[in-house]
Write a structure and sequence with these properties.
Number of strands: 4
CATH architecture of the largest domain: Up-down Bundle
Number of helices: 20
Distance between the termini: 76 Å
Helix content: 55-70%
Order of helices and strands: HHEHHEHHHHHHHHHHHEEHHHHH
CATH topology of the largest domain: Four Helix Bundle (Hemerythrin (Met), subunit A)
CATH class of the largest domain: Mainly Alpha
Largest sheet: 2 strands, parallel
Number of domains: 3
Radius of gyration: 35 Å
Length: 382
Amino acid sequence: MKKTVAKKAKVAAEGQAKEAPKVDLKAELRKLTRRGREQGFVTQEEILAIFPEPENHINEVDDLYFKFLEEGIDVFDTTEVDVSDVGKPITELEKELEGLATLEEGYLSDPVRMYLREIGRIALLTYEDEVSLAKRVEKNDKRARERLISANLRLVVSIAKKYVNRGLTLLDLIEEGNIGLMRAVEKYDWTRGYKFSTYATWWIRQAITRAIADQARTIRIPVHMVETINKFNRISRRLMQELGREPAPEEVAKEMEIGVDKVREIVKVSQEPASLEAPVGEEEDSRLGDFIQDASASPTDQATQALLKDHIREVLSTLSPREAKVLEYRFGLEDGKQRTLEEVGREFGVTRERIRQIEAKAIRKLRHPTRAKKLRDYLDLA
């Protein structure tokens, strides 16, 4: 029984999570390249065996693929599952996507339905048709290029559906896959003798996986950090299975051979940003942002504070300069720093007791109704 590339990639990833083998990546790539030179081709399954999560190794996979192109080594999709999906009736493909959309966003949106029905009306091509169109594309025939692209839009959908729930909507995945399809049309070499769909599959998948790596998060994380996060997740899952509990940061750090501070940094970076517009409550009539306190002062509060400072200066001006200065030092009215009796005494060259007497006398004066009235209203706002 044939298995899909996606399923094999998942199995490979799970196996890596359980066993965490130490793979000599360079040695594996050398072996694959040598095998490709000997037989003239490699398969996508062989590449996925080395990179089970290709979206986390975009640069390495790109370099490898372009190296194969330079050396004339073809890359084939041996499973042909994506290609066989293309021949399905569009209604059957729509039902599959309906099930995936239930997991993704609750329903298959109208734009997706309309798009599927539109591409469902486009006739598929035979191998002879593909070769004929490819020859015309070489001569810059725009209509032939458009025909080759439109006839393979179902192929893009069949590949995009495997990447649902990875951070991008189905429409976004299809759009990115279409970009990969256009690149495949430009680079297709019909003289090699294989079907266009076999060649295009790689370019479509490459475009989608790169988009997931670059766009899936609100805040983009560098590819090397994505790889570290995925390694952290695999080791954490394995330790949880072995220990029967959530592993401590120290345990994960030991397995990853890094410091505990680095593990905490990985956890912090890997957290998904929360939307302030996210609905909250059973009826979802509130938003998360409604419950977050704004630490900054409102314009009204700022205006009130400015008026209060003006009135304090006005009231202090009715005291003697020494009394006003003592109160400013004692209560931090100018710089927010409150000073002790001894510190103020040193400023004026007098004893603590003398400063206490000056302070007491100044406060008695401020309690006089003519002075206190200007400040008493602010007590109601406190």
